[in-house]
């Protein structure tokens, strides 16, 4: 659906302005308090090229995630009284004349590619430019790896599909960067990765009931991008973006026997069930502890029945808020469940039951939206002070003072909209943050808002199938430490390698679970700052449908502002519940009062409202067969409904709640841990997928670390070879320096491993600097190179902080100046692999685990548990070679290579190199091949010696 081509005053909705002189140029205006958050799309009629003009690239990147009506303003009532008919608009369709449609299709991939390349360039250079123009990338070098690949002609459409899954069209997510999906952020490699990623997601969406394999892409992804295919595919699978759910082909992938550690999941809500299923598919042993007698948590479908009538009532989460990319919608597709779009018509009725005048309804709604606009401008003017001000206070400040000319009906209408806003946030306006109450709006799922016929419990049951859940296990304490976790529940102690806590924020706020040791103060403060609101319902099963069947919703006004949220909105489930079911909502302050109201009184008031509406129409309202009143605030397993951003809190607090503690032993999931999708069912599900991936990562790191630490002496060769493989794809390269570091820990103080390569024949100076003639003798290591048939490289290492690496990279003057900076300014020593010592092992293990199953650039070395084997058969004879090391005074010292290992036939498969001079002593193990060539060093330089750079301070490595 295209956006309307109009510019309504004070609009809160995306609209399009078309250039009358050029019908192919239009501007999409986005709902935001930021006047720069719009972008233009231009289709040039002369060359069919596209350009996107963006006055504020960073803001557009956020808004590209969702070009939709802000969800939190429209969660309750569909918009029926304005030209904007739907609650949520679809992504825009670029208007193109029919005559140009084919040419545009052929250039669609170029549009996305050019846009992404330009965006990445700006990202890498931290550009603050106020505008950007997309230009075609040129392959100057002719290297195939420097080309933007073309998978098909649908790159633009595939980018939009990826948007619905939460991926920016032209950049990486923070999670992808942390996972190290590309070797260098920015540039053509990233563009190609994004194209591949988007294509995989699109192929998955075509048929979500099959298991997507990498082999399906072999014929469409160029061979030189195989590593990017591996990276994208592994990332999407491990984090639950593809190949998830309950289709038979997906369930078949769960291994029969677990081969990974035991994991305890606390809570069988959507987050816990999603995580459990993922962990089972990864091969973990999973135990789910649930305090209730049922799964689902705050998603609860109750079967109501009486006489010969039955109906399924969603007493908790009920509305799928947006279906584009919604994983719950994908589950419904896998199960062949149809979704019912909530229809737009939502009439309102006055206190006396008479319908509200349509024109007055429209006027007040426009006034209300204008008020929200003013509140948005106010918070912009207030800046940081807005964090300490409530949305309610801002609305009261901006709200015009009603005079005698405004009647009670208009006041009641306005209060109804305030109640609808409190329903959307499950919180009182007086407690919502003015600055951040709608911080998640840019990430809104596009598409229709829907009911699932038969209730959302059908999805819960499908997710819970074959998941080991222990019911009525109320968790009292969680102990976590370096050795694992212990969970005390129902008088039993459950032990595991890791635990995932998915309990609602209300339970964390209440302190119902004791954490040993206490949670970090940072997390405790986040729990305290975030709000947790309340929504209640009255479900009524009637003997027949007496209300209009063309309605899914209708509203009722109150003349008491303090009771504005009391039964203010009704959901008709007659078309989806299997019987004549009505549900009345109670929001805001009324939801708290409702908790203590006798159920009979509540039902009587609802019936009185219904009789007031339908009685004057000559419609008799029968007594209900069965009624249910919820008490989510009193439920000990929830203590509320869903989260919101309270005064003093921000979106950062969702991230804080999502942080694991105990060095990867205790994890957290649930709707209150997702910054993008809080207070939603799909947000809870996605958080479970997220934490399953995090738990698998930490488990892999620990497993690899334990292998290294269990017997470091036997694994010395393996560690050296592992280090060699990791440096085949370094994270940074400059001159003869290369660096690897952990992607997960991006702090400047985090540890990195630096390698300096001494090799020959010398490459030309890439930095355009001339070599110093006095050092043209190539010094120490070029001589070594010549004696090893110019096939060997000598590597020395050191541990640095990420910040030191970045400083070293910025040093100008070539490798000579970098070596000087490294040794003189930073005061570090360059050593061989053994010289790094065991302190480097955890860093190496962590980096290896993060890179996952990424194939190394070369597989010339095969790792075994503690041995390094050459690719070919053993040497036919022993070797003794000699080289020379130049002293500082240009004299030389002999270097001997002595066989140090024997094969079964008596030949040697390695040799030990030893060299001495007044300033350096080197010991290295040289792996040798059958033909006399060599395949690598395992080298150690004594810790006590002078650094290599001190031996030849003027050494120029080019």
Pick out its properties.
958 residues, alpha+beta, 27 helices, 37 strands, 31% helix, 20% strand, elongated, disordered N terminus
From the spread of the alpha carbons, the general shape counts as elongated
Overall radius of gyration: 33 Å
By DSSP, the count of extended strands is 37
Mean pLDDT: 76
Our estimate of the beta-strand percent is: 15-25%
User: Largest sheet, order of strands side by side?
Assistant: 11-21-22-23-20-24
User: What's the helix count?
Assistant: 27
- End-to-end Cα distance, whole Å, is 58 Å
- Characterize the largest beta sheet: strand count, sense, and whether it forms a barrel: 6 strands, mixed
**Unreliable segments (pLDDT under 50, ≥5 consecutive)?**
1-71, 79-141, 761-791, 853-958
What is the helix fraction of residues, given as a range? 25-40%
> What class do helices, strands and sheet pairing give?
alpha+beta
């Amino acid at each position: 659906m295209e956006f309307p081509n109009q510019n309504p005053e004070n609009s809160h909705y995306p609209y399009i302005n078309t250039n009358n002189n050029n019908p192919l140029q239009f501007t999409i205006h986005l709902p935001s308090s930021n006047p720069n958050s719009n972008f233009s799309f231009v289709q040039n009629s002369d060359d069919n090229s596209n350009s996107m003009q963006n006055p504020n690239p960073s803001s557009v990147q956020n808004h590209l995630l969702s070009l939709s009506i802000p969800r939190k303003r429209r969660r309750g009532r569909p918009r029926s009284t304005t030209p904007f008919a739907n609650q949520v608009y679809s992504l825009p369709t670029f208007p193109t004349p029919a005559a140009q449609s084919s040419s545009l299709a052929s250039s669609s991939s170029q549009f996305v590619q050019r846009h992404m390349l330009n965006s990445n360039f700006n990202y890498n250079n931290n550009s603050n430019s106020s505008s950007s123009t997309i230009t075609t990338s040129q392959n100057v070098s002719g290297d195939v790896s420097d080309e933007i690949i073309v998978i098909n002609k649908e790159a633009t459409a595939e980018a939009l599909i990826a948007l619905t899954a939460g991926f920016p069209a032209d950049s990486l997510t923070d999670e992808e960067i942390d996972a190290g999906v590309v070797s260098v952020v920015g540039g053509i490699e990233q563009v190609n990765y994004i194209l591949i990623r988007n294509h995989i997601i699109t192929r998955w969406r075509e048929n979500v009931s099959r298991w997507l394999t990498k082999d399906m892409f072999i014929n469409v992804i160029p061979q030189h991008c195989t590593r990017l295919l591996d990276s994208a595919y592994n990332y999407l699978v491990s984090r639950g973006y593809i190949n998830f759910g309950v289709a038979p082909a997906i369930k078949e992938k769960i291994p029969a026997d677990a081969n990974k550690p035991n994991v305890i999941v606390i809570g069988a809500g959507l987050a816990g069930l999603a995580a459990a299923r993922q962990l089972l598919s990864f091969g973990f042993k999973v135990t789910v502890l649930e305090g209730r007698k049922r799964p689902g948590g705050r998603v609860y479908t109750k079967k109501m029945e009486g006489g010969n009538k039955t109906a399924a009532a969603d007493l908790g989460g009920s509305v799928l808020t947006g279906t584009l990319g919604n994983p719950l919608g994908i589950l419904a597709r896998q199960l062949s469940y149809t979704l019912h779009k909530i229809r737009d018509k939502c009439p309102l009725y006055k206190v006396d039951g008479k319908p509200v005048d349509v024109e007055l309804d429209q006027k007040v709604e426009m006034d209300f939206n204008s008020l929200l606009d003013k509140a948005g401008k106010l918070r912009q003017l207030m800046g940081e002070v807005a964090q300490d001000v409530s949305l309610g206070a801002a609305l009261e400040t901006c709200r015009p003072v009603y005079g005698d000319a405004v009647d009670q009906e208009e006041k009641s209408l306005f209060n109804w909209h305030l109640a609808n806003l409190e329903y959307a946030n499950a919180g009182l306006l007086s407690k919502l943050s003015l600055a951040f109450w709608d911080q998640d709006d840019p990430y809104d799922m596009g598409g229709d808002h829907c009911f699932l016929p038969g209730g959302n419990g059908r999805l819960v049951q499908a997710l819970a199938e074959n998941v080991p859940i222990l019911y009525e296990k109320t968790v009292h304490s969680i102990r976590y430490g370096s050795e694992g976790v212990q969970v005390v529940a129902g008088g039993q102690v459950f032990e595991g390698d890791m635990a995932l806590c998915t309990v609602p924020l209300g339970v964390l706020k209440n302190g119902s679970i004791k954490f040993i040791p206490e949670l970090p103060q940072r997390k405790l403060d986040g729990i305290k700052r975030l709000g947790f609101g309340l929504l209640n319902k009255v479900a009524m099963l009637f003997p027949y449908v007496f209300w209009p069947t063309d309605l899914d919703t209708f509203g009722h006004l109150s003349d008491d502002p303090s009771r504005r949220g009391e039964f203010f909105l009704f959901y008709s489930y007659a078309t989806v519940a299997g019987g004549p079911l009505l549900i009345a909502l109670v929001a805001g302050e009324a939801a708290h009062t409702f908790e203590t109201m006798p159920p009979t009184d509540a039902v009587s008031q609802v019936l009185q409202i219904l009789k007031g509406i339908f009685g004057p129409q000559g419609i008799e309202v029968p007594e209900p067969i069965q009624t249910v009143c919820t008490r989510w605030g009193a439920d000990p397993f929830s203590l509320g409904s869903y989260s919101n951003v309270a005064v003093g809190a921000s979106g950062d607090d969702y991230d804080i709640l999502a942080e694991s503690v105990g060095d990867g032993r205790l994890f957290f999931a649930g709707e209150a841990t997702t910054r993008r999708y809080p207070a939603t069912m799909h947000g809870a599900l996605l958080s479970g997928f997220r934490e399953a991936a995090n738990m698998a990562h930490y488990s892999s790191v620990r497993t690899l670390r334990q292998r290294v630490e269990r017997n470091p002496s036997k694994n010395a060769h393996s560690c050296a070879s592992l280090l060699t493989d990791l440096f085949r794809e370094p994270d940074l390269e400059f001159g003869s320096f290369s660096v690897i570091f952990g992607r997960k820990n991006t702090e400047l103080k985090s540890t990195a491993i630096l390698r300096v390569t001494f090799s020959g024949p010398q490459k030309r100076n890439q930095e355009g600097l001339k070599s110093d003639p006095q050092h043209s003798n190539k010094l120490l290591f070029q001589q070594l190179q010549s004696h090893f048939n110019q096939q060997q490289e000598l590597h020395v290492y050191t541990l640095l902080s990420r910040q030191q690496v970045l400083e070293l990279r910025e040093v100008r003057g070539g490798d000579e100046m970098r070596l000087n900076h490294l040794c003189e300014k930073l005061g570090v020593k360059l050593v061989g692999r053994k010289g790094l010592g065991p302190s480097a092992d955890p860093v190496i293990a962590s980096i290896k685990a993060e890179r996952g199953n990424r194939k190394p650039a070369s597989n010339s070395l095969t790792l075994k548990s503690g041995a390094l084997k050459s690719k070919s058969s053993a040497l036919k004879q022993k070797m003794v070679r000699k080289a020379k090391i130049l002293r500082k005074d240009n004299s030389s010292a002999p270097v001997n290579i002595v066989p140090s290992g024997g094969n079964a036939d008596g030949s040697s498969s390695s040799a030990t190199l030893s060299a001495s001079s007044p300033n350096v002593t080197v010991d290295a193990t040289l792996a040798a091949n059958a033909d006399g060539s060599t395949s690598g060093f395992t080298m150690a330089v004594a810790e006590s010696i002078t650094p290599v750079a001190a031996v030849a301070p003027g050494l120029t490595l080019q």
